[in-house]
Prior knowledge:
By secondary structure, the protein is an alpha+beta fold. The protein has helices spanning 26-42, 123-136, 147-159; strands at residues 46-48, 58-63, 66-77, 82-89, 92-102, 104-110, 116-122. It is built from 3 helices and 7 strands. It is globular and about 45 Å long. Zinc ion (ZN) binds at residues 89-91, 131, 135, 185.
Amino acid sequence: MPVQPVRLFGDPVLRTSAAEVTTFDAELRRLVADLTDTMHDEGGAGLAAPQLGVGLRVFTYDCDGFTGHLVNPTWEAVGDEEQFGPEGCLSIPGLAWDCRRHLHVVAHGFDMYGEPVTIEGSEILARCIQHEVDHLDGVLFVDRLDAEAREAALAVLRDAEWAGEQAYLPAGEPLRPPVVKVSPH
Length: 185
Ligand SMILES: [Zn+2]
């Protein structure tokens, strides 16, 4: 399956709510394969369909030894504990800021064949689930930062030369700076 270009901050598709999947067909399985391959190629901990320009509620994850995908996901916090630590995003390459998230979550959804799936996650996997479901609602992690960090992040993003650039990069001509290795999603 081909690796697809990841849409970057400034692309409207990242600010658009994705639609529920209603047909569990070969096209959906191709999307899951593309997401998985692209996530692995980029060294990401997760990837959501809108990041490939597809407005469907699907994401893949690979963190803490857990790999998989979830279709039409929902999640809820387990307990009140929070975590505060570095978070990155493949659509905001090379940058990371400390972001507050629930420490433990449980997510429900479906696999690509339409079978119900439940995932329980803590720490990085919990952070990933929250980050990816945000993507499906058009929310980016910079929106979740504390006010001061958010202001600083937006100032950096305004000056980032790739922000708002056309995300379909010519093959072999990477425009992006190196991807940060701190739990990018
Ligand atoms: Zn992301």
